[in-house]
Amino acid sequence: MVVSILFVLFTVMAVTCALATVCHRNPVHCALFLVGVLLSMSGMFIILNAPFIAAIQVLVYAGAIMVLFLFVLMMLNVRGETPLLTPGATKGFGILFGIVALAELIWIVLAPGIEEWRPGPAPNLPADFGSPAAIGRILYTTWLYPFEITSILLLIAVIGAVVLSRRKFE
Amino acid sequence: MNPAETLPAAAALAVPLSAFQLVAAVLFTIGVVGVLVRRSALIIFMSIELMLNAVNLSFVAFARQHAQMDGHVFVFFVMAVAAAEVAVGLAILVAIFKSRTTASVDEVHLLKG
Predict the structure, then answer these.
(1) Which residue of B has its CA nearest to A162?
(2) Is residue B6 included in any domain, yes or no?
(3) Do A78 and A27 meet the contact criterion of CB atoms below 8 Å apart?
(4) What span, in angstroms and rounded, lies between the C-alpha atoms of A74 and A78?
(5) What is the rounded distance in angstroms from the CA atom of residue B88 to the CA atom of residue B85?
(6) Which domain CATH number covers B78?
(7) Is B61 within the bounds of a domain?
(8) End-to-end CA distance of chain A
(9) Dist. CA B23–CA A45, nearest whole Å
(10) B10 domain residue, yes or no
(11) Which bin fits B67, alpha (ψ -120 to 50), beta or left (φ > 0)?
(12) Residue A53: in which H helix or E strand, if any?
């Protein structure tokens, strides 16, 4: 019961903040609304027995990535767009595409015949489900090579960011 | 893992999995529309973050439903890729802004034929 109420609360918060992110004129307000989305996502992860993911969601996303966004916003002093949306046919296409994509996704979720998506019998969760120790165990065994490749990716991103921001443009 | 070490039955998911998937679908669609209709490159980046988060929610919900933690590991990778993408993307944006003094994608069309 409590979980259902929390789920509805986080859903309303996430969808409202997401709409505000996309619709608001001031980029700084958009970034702050996006933080709202990220925090409600973190609450969803808690509901779903993923405390470690919820923690790094707050630390990495709401902490590091959004601070980077706000740094760039403050540094560039980006004004609100006028007009807000892309002109002409692109806007209509975008909204139409969004409606069609949403209808498709809802149909996929609610379509008959996909039994494993139904509530079904509750799976027996291991006692350490979602704990840092359990995630670390499979991260460093089953997923070791992807993990190492991720570190190379981050190194490339660091070098790329430094090179791009130091280069002189005429 | 020892089957005896399981959470009590009260820990069963009170909300059906499809509800989480529907929330993820709505958030993903909002992100797609944001990318398509907004002009500021910064807002487009934020919409991409929105889409990545919707997919993360889907991953974690499936991981919970199947009691498999591989979904959590994948969310971890998605976050790492998102961090790399934001770092490089914002560096490109700063470079564009230095030479063009605009962040609007409609005014950066040098590659357009």
Answers:
(1) B91
(2) no
(3) yes
(4) 8
(5) 5
(6) 1.10.287.3510
(7) yes
(8) 61
(9) 13
(10) no
(11) left
(12) helix A51-56
Range of lowest pLDDT (A13-17, A86-90, B16-20, B92-96): A86-90
Q: How far is B35 from chain A (nearest CA, A)?
A: 8
Q: Do A69 and B90 touch (CB under 8 A)?
A: yes
Which tens digit of pLDDT belongs to each residue from B22-44? Answer: 999 999 999 999 998 888 888 99
* Count of the separate structural domains present in chain B: 1
**Residue the block writes with tokens 């960011």:** A161
Is position B37 within any domain?
yes
* Phi, psi dihedrals of residue B6, rounded to the nearest 5°: -115, 160
| Alpha carbons B51 and B56: distance in angstroms, whole number | 9
| Closest CA in chain A for residue B86 | A65
- CA neighbor of A90 nearest in space, from A82, A98, A100: A98
Both tokens of A168, joined, read 């002189």
* Average pLDDT of the residues of chain B: 83
Task: Give me the domain span that covers residue B93.
Answer: 15-111
Most confident of A105-109, B7-11, B17-21, B54-58: B54-58
Helix, strand, coil % (nearest 5) of chain A? 75, 0, 25
Q: Are A106 and B25 in contact (CB under 8 A)?
A: yes
- CA–CA min distance A43, chain B (Å): 11
Degrees to nearest 5, angle at CA B49 with A101 and A95 = 30
